[in-house]
Amino acid sequence: MTPKTLRTIRQIHLYIAVFFAPAILFFAISGGLQSFRLQQASGWDGAEPPQWMATMGSVHIDQRLPEAEPEKKPEAAKPKPPVDPAKLAERKAKAAKALPMKIFTAALGLALALSTLLGAAIAIGTKSTRRISLIMLAAGALVPILLLA
């Protein structure tokens, strides 16, 4: 490839990377959280997750903001049926077997987020690309917000 072709490819890469950097950052973080199901009650032993995690999970999974659920009337506490010890042990064994992959996936999300932040810092820190990088970053953050509204 000629030097001019390589320069053009680098410019195109810059525009694409900086435009999508906000979305890559968002999906890397929300995906890492989803590895442990932290966007839903099962990730918190039945307790409600923090609202920001539930919102990120809804956007990541359903590509929309969560809808407000109608108030539920408190019901009388129903006794839980007894859990079969064999099924409970099997469930725990499956969870233990999946843990290394969950940790790897969360680390992947963290690494992708860090790499994205470093790339954006390089683009903004380079004097010749600062203006277009800031414009593309702003556009990349604004477009998904408008699409969700």
Q: Describe it for me?
A:
This protein has 149 residues and is mainly α. It has a domain at 115-149. The protein has four helices and no strands. Helix 1 packs across helix 4 (130-148). The longest helix has 41 residues, at 85-125. The model has no long low-confidence stretch (mean pLDDT 90).
Q: Which secondary structure elements does this structure contain, and how are they paired or packed?
A:
Blueprint lengths: L2 H32 L16 H12 L22 H41 L4 H19 L1
Helix pairs in contact: 1-2, 1-3, 1-4, 3-4
What is the overall silhouette? elongated
Tally the helices.
4
Element string (H = helix, E = strand): HHHH
Helix content estimate: 55-70%
Biggest β-sheet, characterized? none
* Rg value: 22 Å
Strand content: under 5%
The overall strand count is 0
Looking at the chains present, what oligomeric state does this protein adopt? single chain
Poorly predicted residue ranges: none
* Coarse structural class: mainly alpha
What is the terminal separation in angstroms? 44 Å
What's the average pLDDT?
A: 90
Kindly summarize this structure in a few lines:
With 149 residues, the protein is mainly α. It has helices spanning 3-34, 51-62, 85-125, 130-148. The chain has 4 helices and no strands.
Key phrases:
mainly alpha, 149 residues
